[in-house]
Amino acid sequence: MSFCRFLVSLLLAFCSLIAPLHPAGAQISWEVERTITSPEKIVDLASSLDGSRLYLLTRDGLVRVYDGEGNLTGTIPVGKGVERIKAVGLQAAGIPERLLVAEGSQVREISLQFAVKIDIDGAPFLGTADAPITIVEFSDFQCPFCARVKPLIEEVMRRNPDQVKVVFKHFPLPSHQLARPAAAAAMAAQNQGKFWEMHDRIFAAQKELSPAKIRVLAQELQLDMDRFDRDIKSPEMTRRLEKEIADGRQARVRGTPALFVNGRPVTQRTPEGIQQMIDEILGR
């Protein structure tokens, strides 16, 4: 149940208290489907526009954040003087969520960044499988900006050799006609244990990319070309690629490259910006 329904339940419960004031013919049906108990007295509350989160301002100066299942996911210290809060933005639509907090004659705007769950099962990766930090890259082989990400990733891994795993996810953009064939070729190369070799070759040949060039790259890697041809045309390959795209959309990817550190979107695509996120997660 979404928190929109939860808030409606609270409103309807209040309406039931004043029901005798309304005409006898008025009818309404309601039920309380979930109750959240805060450890501190609630001063104010707000819900995200899509109902996926509930924010409770409590008298100890914290905003407690609950997810759609009623689980506490974190707290935001705002100060004991805060009297009102309001959530704005719609993360599901790619509009960053923000929290407005009112204290005396001032209103503060707090930007919120939530981690998203990304399915990386079976995706190619660099680094240690059980590394505490997972960087997910959604990429498009025809995107010129994606071709420039490699030095950034290499620098981050150089600084954190045992702490970082980098996972590659395909997100071919509709405007790039060769992005899907290139992604399929890379996935076919992955089936033969040579994803990263194909990955590097495709980006290196990005300006001269064509179906014929992609095939030449596969031959240079000495792939089993009969298997390669079968794989890139198979329904299973199409299904896998569509799943990759769906994963990107679920993570609210709008363009490429899109990087995530342990599910948190990267806003500063620099070694320093990513390192700061890593240090915060590792508590360094």
UniProtKB/TrEMBL annotation:
Top-level lineage group: Bacteria
Keyword Flavoprotein attached: no
Protein name as it appears in the record: DsbA family protein
UniProt-recorded Gene Ontology molecular function terms: oxidoreductase activity
Signal peptide: 1-26
Keywords from the named record: Disulfide bond, Oxidoreductase, Redox-active center, Signal
Gene3D superfamilies in UniProt: Glutaredoxin (3.40.30.10)
Pfam families, per database record: Thioredoxin_4 (PF13462)
InterPro entries: Haem_d1_sf (IPR011048), Thioredoxin-like_fold (IPR012336), Thioredoxin-like_sf (IPR036249), Thioredoxin_domain (IPR013766)
Family: Belongs to the thioredoxin family. DsbA subfamily.
Occurrences of domain Thioredoxin (ranges): 105-283
